[in-house]
Structure prediction request, 428 residues.
Amino acid sequence: MSKAPGSSAGEPYLAVEIAPGVHWVGALDPHLRTFDIILKTANGTSYNAYVVRGETGVAVIDTVKESFADDFFRRLESVARYDEITTIVLNHLEPDHSGALPELLKRAPQARVYLSSRAQMMLKALLKPSGEKPPEYIPVTTDDTVDLGGRTLRFLHTPYLHWPDTQCTYLEEDAILFTGDVFGCHFCDGRLFNDRVGDFRFSFEYYYAHIMRPFREYVLDAMALIEPLALQLIAPAHGPILRHQPRDYVLRYRELASPRLFNEARSEKTLVVFYISAYGNTRRMAEALAAGAERIDGVRVSLYDLEGGESGIFTDLIEEADGIAIGSPTINGDAVRPIWDLLSSLTTVNIKGKLGAAFGSYGWSGEAVRLIEDRLRGLKLRLPVDGLRVKLVPAADELEHCRSLGESLARHLTGQVEHREIDMASLA
Prediction:
């Protein structure tokens, strides 16, 4: 009943065979233009779900967004009866993958649900509005398996790609990897397969940059599990099914997750100082801070004026740096827009635990430094030294305070911080 691989998925709601006994039963959303508020989708997306048939059971791997459930069930019914379904695998419980789950559980109540241990509470929350009792579910981790009769599903624990609950599922006998959001992209094309659809390279890279890049350490952990596998086909939850040279996409993920900038002196710590200055006063502070940091051996300091570049171009630099200091004047009770543009760009990278600091000149109220510090803390940076504010033109002693701030930051970066001795009697 299924259509040949590569034929359009848009008519008449039949499943598409991606391998013998393995079918795509997802849905197409070509008119979507914004996903999760932050992602643009120039030609929509797909919600990919799959059915695997064994000799003794049928598995459904993921579902679709609730508003596309009818498409999902029509395709599912074209290749399986509900009473045949023994297994439901949830690689990821975000609503675009689990929207049809409550109805599927009603239609196939005998099915066991397999999901990661981190997904258990999410499953209960997902079913809470309907008042449904959670189904029988089995938490799994790497190398746990399900036997469908002649076909084996093996699970890979791949958390934070991009939610804590995410996992991958490997069909051993056919070397097919069902990856959830990993290797996916928002690209809608009814021809489904990467060797048949239009050019989706931009969508693939854009998706990685906005969804996976903040979790690149977890991406590398996942690649360590995936790279040893035989791979005939990668079946993600969004975008084209990767049947042509699937390993190329694994290699690309490793490249994207690896450090992007060559480190000329790996033994050195790097401090990047960003500033923007209305009348040159914050610039003087930045220069003094950088000079102070350079007093400490083992620290390489870079100084950048944000007026001279788009904030997005610094993302790679910040991702690889050990510490950042940000300087802004206060205008209308706030830091200036280029500072906020820079800080907002950092949501796509992992900077948790890096060292941060703020500084700036002001005329009346000086809120910018505190606001920047609040944002840096929100981004999970460490701020070991209080920020520095100078009213109008910095005097010689105030510039020395800036140099001291830079020196202190450098000492924290290199582990040379002097520990204070506390007089316990003074605390009494």
Remarks:
- Confidence is low (pLDDT under 50) at residues 1-7, 419-428.
- Residues 16-257 form a domain with the Metallo-beta-lactamase; Chain A fold (CATH 3.60.15.10).
